[in-house]
Design goal:
By secondary structure, the chain is mainly alpha-helical. The protein contains 17 helices and 5 strands. Strand 2, helix 4 and strand 3 form a beta-alpha-beta unit. Helix 3 packs across helix 10 and helix 11 crosses helix 14.
Amino acid sequence: MDNETDSSITFDQNGYCNYCTDVIRRMPDVYFPGGGLKLKSLFREIRRKCRNDTYDCLVGLSGGIDSSFLLYLGYRAGLRMLAVHVDDGLDNPVAGANITKLTERTGADLFTLKPDHGEYADLLRALFKASVPNLAIVQDNLILKAVDRAGARFHIRYSLDGHNIAHESILERGDGINFCDKKHILAIHRLYGAMPIHKTEFISLYDRYVGRNIRRGMKHVRPLNYLDYRLDRAVKTLENFCGFEYYGGKHYESVLTRYLQCYYLPVKYGVDKRKSHFSSLIVSGQMSRKEALEKLRQPLYPSADLLEQDKKCLADFMGISVATLERWVAKPPEKQSHYPHSRLNELAPLARKFRKFIE
């Protein structure tokens, strides 16, 4: 992590940044790499409380390593699971094949939701035109909304959440706006969208942080924090289990997020998301700083041909030419906060400070 790409970063007298020191301070309360008994106890609780329900739990399944390993863990624990996938039309084909292999091998039911293509494409076009850094804000919002909808529809009490300290404790914040800010998404669309949004449902900041607790809906738990969760071992385990194929990098299970991280952010904003991802692995002891610096010297995109394929895929999806896409990317960058957003975003630093009590 460095202050060239993140204006919010600070360093102490030892040269340690606020991201690392915050995670190291939190780890004793939320990360238990030797917590096998805690994990067994959690799964036992889920089975007991949900024994008369159709499903023990829900798993949001992207075809990526974290959600895939969660489905594997649930299968090993004998849980009756509903896998929920949002097929936005931009899945990496490898991730799609992984979902099929996993659900067939585990016997989990698969519930797939597809956003309206016209509205979703128009929302994505609006984000490109607005020249904001987070092109995946709508995608992330719809995924969480789908999980909540499926949980309510099937009366599911537990959701296995793939977020974990080992692989994603550090995320460059910069000028970010919470992806659950429905007001922000719709404000950008009002400025740059070309069609009304009637079929697409969003989750709001209130829904996520207040409404869930009032309604006492699904309980979101993070099993990956109760084991020594290592990327290489997880990939190998899933390969042996169902023929899982690793797709090459963090968030590469989607064409949109691969393009965002490997091209759009570095070219337009000078931001290399690998710094966040590698920093998380360093803090959890899975990578040395020397190894991370060596990896940062490697090209961002796996190949020039793949970059051109992804550009064409996104352009076709939005109904534009590649030339138009590149013209939008060449526009001067804007800050996410330049556009209207909820005042609740301003509480984020306070929420992080008291995260232990809130959680």
